[in-house]
Automatic annotation (TrEMBL), chain A:
Taxonomic lineage: Bacteria, Pseudomonadati, Pseudomonadota, Alphaproteobacteria, Hyphomicrobiales
Modified residues (4-aspartylphosphate): D60
Protein name per UniProt: Response regulator receiver domain-containing protein
GO BP term, example: phosphorelay signal transduction system
Residue ranges of domain Response regulatory in the record: 8-123
SUPFAM superfamilies cross-referenced by the UniProt entry: CheY-like (SSF52172)
Alphabetized PROSITE patterns for the sequence: RESPONSE_REGULATORY
Taxonomic source organism: Fulvimarina manganoxydans
From TrEMBL, chain B:
Residue intervals of the PAC domain: 253-304
Organismal lineage: Bacteria, Pseudomonadati, Pseudomonadota, Alphaproteobacteria, Hyphomicrobiales
Protein name (database record): Blue-light-activated histidine kinase
Domain (PAS) ranges: 180-238
Annotated NCBIfam families: sensory_box
Swiss-Prot/TrEMBL keywords: ATP-binding, Chromophore, Flavoprotein, FMN, Kinase, Nucleotide-binding, Phosphoprotein, Photoreceptor protein, Receptor, Sensory transduction, Transferase
Signal peptide interval: none
Reaction(s) catalysed by this chain's protein: ATP + protein L-histidine = ADP + protein N-phospho-L-histidine
């Protein structure tokens, strides 16, 4: 595996429409989206076949009205420190101390083009 | 002169009368202390009659008497009324020879009194209230020792009256104090709050009925520091710390903790205390405890609703931005975008209406479907809608509106609704286990060909709808007409 192959973006969002839009944004940015609506599914994808093409995870902290998205971000940070983590939320900006190190916060409502360039940047950062 | 005395009661007389009344002795039953004084006076002076006499403005009352057999007489014939006017001792050896009494009926007629000697009873302030006197039916005199004894007896009688008055006043004060105490205690007990009192060391020394009713604890378990047992274990240490800190500094405090109610439930309460001082000396605290559980719950609900609304609003903005972005990006021409975007946003808004109608949004499938196709129901008979009543959760209604809207838009542009005579049939079914099946079938339209490129609307129908129903969906561009099938689970909200 080489770094440049890691085009995968894991999009974790409980709202079906937002999930579709975010994953479209990833696809339009030239990346390969994987979709999950909850933490369990996200972890399944992460562990599946040693999914080593994943370079970025984009996760909503409020998954299905449960605030376990941040827990997922920490789990990913522990399991796969090589994956860039982008956190989004419709709530208040989280305290940086509660976010895993190196994590980027991208608050809602967001512009789809901004999301695309953010994912692209995250990709080039992980390819470095 | 006697008549004048009765008619013209001077102000000094009125004052004397009220002083007399303050002893509460007029018309009082006989008392051995006064009987003894009268007996001693009669014995010492050797007279058949002796009286402890109170002189009011119109009558005299005999607190004690020997040899008379009556307890009061009018003032007109009184010797003592004269004595009250004299200094403090009056002796009339023979009344028939005294111009003040030689016309007195008690002298001229029965019982033919001749001798009178009276010593004044005076209050500490010098107000005369009566006499201790002796009388005889024959003229006579008293020696110095007898006069001195009579004086001493008058003083002794006065002392008895003072004692009596002191007891009466004390009893009255005690009764008032008891009544005040009772009133304050009942106020404290009936107050709609828990009230407590502590001593200088912070030990609880009193709790009102509110406490016992609320906690169901006993007095001996509550007083001292026992009340802390009713505070939630997690709040106990912090509550104790705040209280003892305030107690050491003698400053007011307010703290919140969970308090165990008699039914075993912990409820949030606010405890407010203030130091008590008497003449500048710290005596402890007095405080109230008020149950704020209901208020706290309401506050939490309000906060949640505000947070929830903010979430929804930001999510809605994200969706609108995304829809606008995708629509504009995928439209072949600006005209197409101009037509598609408002329709999509409108469908979104009407779906949002379904979500925000009630606090617990749910909608019937038929109502949901009809709201989505309303803009396209231009003529009768184009749509056939069939299915049993079934309630959709707010989110599922939202998903279905978006899907049906996109399908209808597509049908108007390319499918069955683009030509006269084309039809759309919508069917749905539910199972008792919550399975939900929904189909959209177009007939009598132009031949259908699969689009070369899946547009945004198509992908929305294909991919998103199933997510709302935790199921699967398929969209077939069959040559006889577009078919959509959704299989999922109804959500019970």
């Amino acid at each position: 595996m080489t770094q440049t192959k890691r085009l995968g973006v894991l999009v974790v969002e409980s709202d079906p429409l937002l999930l579709l839009f975010a994953s479209d944004a990833a696809a339009d940015a030239g990346l390969i989206p994987y979709e999950a609506r909850d933490s369990a599914r996200a972890l399944q994808i992460l562990n599946q076949d040693e999914r080593d093409d994943l370079g970025t995870i984009f996760v909503d902290t409020d998954l299905a009205e449960r605030a376990d998205g941040m827990d997922l971000a920490w789990t990913v940070h522990r399991l796969r420190p090589d994956i860039r983590i982008v956190v989004t939320s419709a709530g208040r900006t989280p305290d940086p101390k509660t976010m895993p190190p190196g994590c980027i916060y991208f608050g809602k409502p967001y512009n789809i083009y901004d999301l695309m360039s953010l994912l692209r940047e995250a990709f080039s950062a992980s390819a470095d | 002169m006697q008549d004048g005395q009765v008619a013209n009661v001077s102000s000094a007389e009125r004052r004397r009368s009220s002083v007399l009344a303050s002893y509460g002795a007029l018309d009082a039953p006989r008392e051995p202390e006064f009987d003894d004084i009268a007996a001693i006076a009669s014995e010492v002076c050797g007279t058949p009659i002796a009286v402890v006499n109170l002189v009011d403005t119109t009558r005299q009352f005999f607190m004690a008497e020997v040899g008379l057999g009556v307890r009061e007489t009018p003032l007109e014939s009184s010797f003592c009324a004269q004595a009250i006017l004299s200094e403090d001792m009056m002796v009339i050896p023979d009344a028939t020879k005294d111009p003040r009494f030689d016309c007195n009926p008690l002298v001229t007629d029965e019982p033919h009194l001749r001798f009178y000697a009276g010593a004044l009873m005076k209050t500490a302030a010098g107000v005369p209230i009566g006499t201790v006197c002796v009388l005889d039916y024959r003229p006579r005199d008293l020696n110095e020792s007898q006069i001195r004894t009579l004086r001493l007896l008058a003083r002794q009688a006065m002392t008895q009256f003072e004692l009596r008055k002191a007891v009466v006043e004390r009893n009255r004060a005690l009764k008032t104090a008891r009544e005040t105490e009772r009133r304050f205690r009942s106020m404290a007990d009936d107050a709609p709050a828990i009230i407590w009192v502590t001593d200088t060391d912070g030990r609880c020394v009193w709790l009102n009925r509110g406490w016992y009713d609320y906690t169901g604890m006993t007095k001996w378990k509550s007083e001292g520091f026992g009340w802390l047992d009713a505070v939630h274990p997690d709040d106990r240490e912090e509550s104790g710390r705040i209280f003892f800190e305030a107690n050491a500094k003698r400053i007011p405090f307010s703290l919140e903790y969970r308090l165990c109610r008699h039914d075993g439930r912990y409820r949030w309460a606010v405890d407010t205390g203030a130091p008590r001082f008497h003449n500048g000396v710290f005596e402890g605290y007095v405080g109230t405890v008020i149950d704020i559980e209901d208020r706290r719950q309401a506050e939490m609900r309000r906060e949640m609703v505000v947070r929830e609304s903010s979430h929804r609003l930001k999510n809605a903005f994200s969706i609108i931005q995304s829809i606008a972005g995708q629509t504009l990006r995928q439209a072949a021409t600006i005209e197409e975008a101009r037509a598609t975007l408002p329709a999509r946003l409108l469908a979104l808004a009407s779906a949002q209406d379904l979500l925000s109608q009630t606090e617990n949004p749910a909608a019937d499938v038929r109502a949901v479907v009809e709201s989505a196709i309303r803009p396209y129901m231009t003529e009768e008979g184009r749509f056939r809608i069939e299915g049993p009543p079934a309630m959709l959760s707010g989110h599922q209604a939202f998903g279905l509106v978006l899907a049906v809207h996109e399908l209808a838009t597509n049908a108007v542009k390319y499918g069955a609704l683009s030509v006269a005579g084309g039809h759309v049939a919508m069917h749905w079914n539910t199972d008792p286990d919550g399975t939900f099946e929904f189909t959209w079938k177009e007939t009598d339209g132009p031949p259908v060909s699969s689009p070369s490129r899946r547009g945004f609307g198509t992908r929305l129908v294909e991919r998103t709808t199933a997510l709302y129903f935790d199921g699967t969906s398929s969209l077939d561009f069959d040559v006889t007409g577009v078919r959509f099938r959704l299989l999922g689970k109804l959500q019970s909200e």
